[in-house]
Amino acid sequence: MSHDAHSILTRVFGYNAFRGDQQAIIGHVASGGDALVLMPTGGGKSLCYQVPALMRPGTAIVVSPLIALMHDQVSALQEAGAAAEYLNSSLDLESLRATEQALRAGNLDLLYVAPERLMTPRFLDLLDHLRDTERLALFAIDEAHCVSHWGHDFRPEYLQLSILPERYPAIPRIALTATADRQTRDEIIQRLHLGTARCFISSFDRPNIHYTIVEKTDARRQLLNFIRNEVHSQFSRAAGIVYCLSRRKVEETAAWLQEHGIAALPYHAGLPTEIRAAHQGRFLREDGLVMVATIAFGMGIDKPDVRFVAHLDLPRSIEGYYQETGRAGRDGLPARAWMTWSAGDVVQQRWMIDSGESEADMDYETYRRLARNRLDALAGLAETTACRRQQLLAYFGEEAAASCGNCDNCADPPQTWDATEAARKALSCVYRTGQRYGAGHLIDVLRGELTDRVREKGHEGLSTFGIGRDLDEKHWRMVFRQLVAHDFVCVDHERYNALVLTETARPLLRGEAGLFVRLPPEKLHRSKRQRKNTLRERNIPGGVPTTLFERLRAWRTDTAQARNVPVYVIFHDTTLRDIAIVRPTTLAGLRQISGIGERKLEAYGKEILEIVAACG
Question: What is the C-alpha to C-alpha distance for residues 55 and 20, in angstroms, rounded to an integer?
């Protein structure tokens, strides 16, 4: 069976070897076993069900939540020579009937469907027919975290998929997701009845992604500088995604980037369907576009050459952050995950948690507690002075032995300041003033400023008046931001953003805990670090003849447009880079390049060799 799997891998998909757990997963599912697969984006999840689908007799049914994802994966399979189709609302009646007829006749290797269509009586009758004629190969449930209330993209229709093991108990199922913490993982197992399934958990590490998190000062200007200085200086025609919390901010940021020469498009759920579809289509089919979006954009965006993902606002959890940043560098080449944040972002997210309704099947207090814990874990990642990758992996229960060397804290260790004494003074001032005032008034009291309001409230007579004259306003504001971020104080939105002590503050006030904060790097020091990293990362691909590589990309763009498919359906950048390095002169030599199967060699081999020859 492993020989058959490897034959399919090389002949159809053009790869010479499996990665990680792929071979074990494929062998288990092809033999009829159920599986839950947790594998990071870009780790090769699709092959884990596509290869056994081609090994087993009959048609594999792939449950997928998004039309765009279905279309692109089916196009890629067809380019590779597999008999694949999809059923969704984008098809006209004639195409719908033709696909159903091909399914009933047993002429398909894989069929992609949305969960709501799978549950219709008409489609279930088709599945019954395939089962009764022994032509139902397997069920693949992609983006399985959609079944979890705690998943990043909960879809209620996924809950109905529990019918599959009841109605088709002999048919193997494989559920796949790119990220799930322990709670989400347990919910997937419970709701999909995968208690006896074998669980395959790959490393969550994405070593090619460089993580950077900076303190928010002027977010849009910081974003522009990041794109110009750290992205465009390293990657030509770099595609990217910028995430914002609100629809208004999405549109304003996209327009602002356009004004400053960045090819940017907005995407959010409030835009007309045709505009969203057009923008998504352009992003998938063109090089170098930046999509500014809410989290409505992303799941199922199977674009391997996204060179950066940026966040202008704090996500709700590390799970969300990991899933969104994981859309960068799916091709394994260097990529950037950049985020700007502030304590105000934490306050806003906490307010949304406290003022919203429970989104899960649990009481409100439990929901709020768990949601705040997840947010606190993300805030901890943002403010840590240690290796970010170590902390990110630790959240998913994975140990990293050493500092990664590929995050901002490792590349340029931040300076820290022992703010314990200042924090205690600040907390005492919050208490002495009655927990009724915001940071501005508290700083005036601490610095001994005799403002009209200080006199009006009589706070010049407090024991905390003037005890903080040794620090300027900028440093005090940093202290209060960190007190909020660490949940030593919370913001009372109903009392004009007054700061209130929390139970967490008690150990700090008693001298049983400390507070160390990171200091922002000096601008000169930071610019030197950026230039150093730029030079280092330019050399990572090593030996790529730019002229030939760009000629191959231009040919790929023309070919993709002619076939009306995304460019990566033709070839990934990694394949084009390998061609540019190796410069094969024969079809046999070209066949040795990873990602070129028999079908693609036959379709494009001669054209590629002509381009290589023309570039000398």
Answer: 20
Q: Are 292 and 266 in contact (CB under 8 A)?
A: yes
Question: How far is residue 150's CA from residue 41's CA, in Å, rounded to a whole number?
Answer: 19
One-letter amino acid at 141 equals I
Separation between Cα atoms, residue 116 and residue 205, nearest integer Å: 33
Q: What angle do CA 594, 595, 600 make, to 5 degrees?
A: 125
Query: What's the rounded Cα separation, in Å, for the pair 102 and 86?
Result: 11
How many angstroms separate the Cα of 558 from the Cα of each of 8, 585, 600? Answer: 29, 22, 16
User: Is the pLDDT confidence value at 274 over 60?
Assistant: yes
List, for residues 29-56, the tens digit of each pLDDT value: 999 999 999 988 777 889 999 999 999 9
> In this structure, how many other beta carbons lie within 10 angstroms of the beta carbon of residue 364?
12
pLDDT in tens, 105-139: 999 999 999 998 999 999 999 999 999 999 999 99
d(CA 535, CA 181) in angstroms, rounded, equals 36
As a whole number of angstroms, the distance between CA 45 and CA 51 comes to 11
Give the burial string for 544-565 (b: 16+ CB within 10 Å, else e): ebeebbbbbbebbeebbeeeeb
Query: Model confidence over 489-522: pLDDT tens digits?
Result: 887 766 777 899 999 899 999 888 888 877 765 5
Angle between helices 67-80 and 273-285 (to 10 degrees): 30
pLDDT at 141 over 80: yes
Would you call 327 helix, strand, or coil by DSSP?
A: coil
Per the DSSP assignment, residues forming a β-bridge with 112 are 62, 86
Q: Determine the 3-state secondary structure of 240 from DSSP.
A: strand
Residue 353 has pLDDT above 60, yes or no: yes
- Beta carbons of 73 and 302 less than 8 angstroms apart: yes
Task: Single out the residue of 421, 208, 382, 176 nearest to residue 304, CA to CA.
Answer: 208
